[in-house]
Give the backbone structure.
Amino acid sequence: MLFDAFKNRKSRKIEFIKTKATWRVAWGRVDANYENIAWQDEKFFVILPGGNSEFLTEKLAISSGGRFVVVGDIWLTNQVQLLQKLGIEPDSFQGSSLELVANLWERWGFECLRQLVGMFGLVVWDREKQVLKLVRDRIGVRTLYYTTTGSVCWIAPQLRTLAPHRSADLDLVALRDYLCCAFVPGERTLWEQVRELRPGTVLEFPDQKVTAYWQLQQKIIAIDQPLEWHGDRLRELLDQVVQEYLPPANEPVGVFLSGGLDSSSITALVAKFHKAPVHTFSIHFGSECPNELEFSSLVASHCQTQHHILEITFKNMWERLPETMAYLDDPIGDPLTVPNLLLGRLARENVEVILNGEGGDPCFGGPKNQPMLINSLYGSVTNQDALQAYLISFQKCAVDLPQLLKPEVWAAVQTAPWVFEEDLYSQANYLNRLMAMNIKFKGADQILTKVSNLTQAALLQGRSPLFDQRVVDLSMEIPPEYKLSGVEEKAVLKQAITSGKSSLQDAAVTMSANILPDAIIHRPKSGMMVPVQLGFRKYWQQEARDLLLNRNAYITPYLNQLPIRNWLNYQGDTWSRYGVKLWLLASLEVWLQVNQKTQ
């Protein structure tokens, strides 16, 4: 392979960071004497951390007939209805959600997946037919990774767990994609020998057949109905979903609150339906940086939550980056990763369940789609095709690739296809095409995996109501002009929050129009700006040079130093984007270092 020297590189400074081990499954010719085997069958082995028998009951179940073994992580919102389908009284059921799925599978097989509502990553072993199936939930809240070489296929919910079973070879196309997007989209991972199961699909062994049991599709309905009608439908569903996502009525709950429309809407609904204390959590970056505390505090006061504000210093941001990268599967170059972890740890002092507003932009037409819409109108003037414009819209390193990548790397990836092409050039409405890509890739491969990994690292249960599979499906039924039209963004979500009706109350009762202050509903989208530009200019200059320009850096065989040196010197930074690019590279280098140490 190219770049074999990478395998022998040693990290200079970053100490080993231990993370909590997860379950893993081996399929194939496995040594039966392998340590920590908690359950085994011919060609199928379940390995748990320390062989923990307590962990076994949480992560493994066998169907009542003994034919199907189900291993994995699952959280269902419709467990009561599923038990009733099996003729079981919900109050009498003492088993786990995995046991429920095992029995559903024994009754209906693959078709039972269409009945599951929730988040899950499952491995199903058919003892009779000796067939293995890997299953992931529709939206991609949970993850499953598997190795692609050797006589044994190893499967785990976290990429780091598979470190002993892969080589150190990087997937160069995944590296290219990360530099453009700040995450690795699609089934690839940064490791050449490991792949990620896509949302809404089943992978079957030994045939390696992939079957989609759900697909995100445009299904626009009721185009003659006004915005209010669609807003009422959305509000009815949000009322239901938020209540299902809440913990038991006597337990406190938390919400990550930025002060934007999405997180504020979830906060307002949580406060409406939950009678135990509601805690909200916001961040800022000190007196040098602008913040949104005015808006988050306004929402907290309006909804009468117990509000907590965390200041994140530049020292915190840099020092906590290695630990944060150790908790992620693939690297994520979003500067919010470190704040997400630190805020999660603050939240854990008060709650065990935390909700967020992630999903509002992908599902309901956030303003980041506007550059692409403009390009579709003026592409003949800009001479940018849709794919080029889409990559540039991430505002990362897409235009820098020919200079940033070493010549041999650029030659290897230059003509490789992109995972976005099928959706980008589909026949769906143009805005819906953009939203579908944001849901399928940015949602599953950046937002949701970040939420899942970092809340779990903080010992929290993270939940994203706006990314619920039913909300996503409904978003594809709403006429595009009610999502993003001109400068008006997320009109249908604003309508749902201000004047929706709830089917959970008397239909004649209109929900209060002041569930949120007008200042929140009608404020322009600004986004949470993490001050990485200031960080690299003033606080992290020397550390970044030591990390990125060191001849022993893990990125050195792949990237040219000259562009990185220019970015560190801020030469020609017309659009103030160098800080974002440098954070992207720092996250990558640190991720590579902390993950090499698990071998």
In short: The longest strand covers residues 68-76.
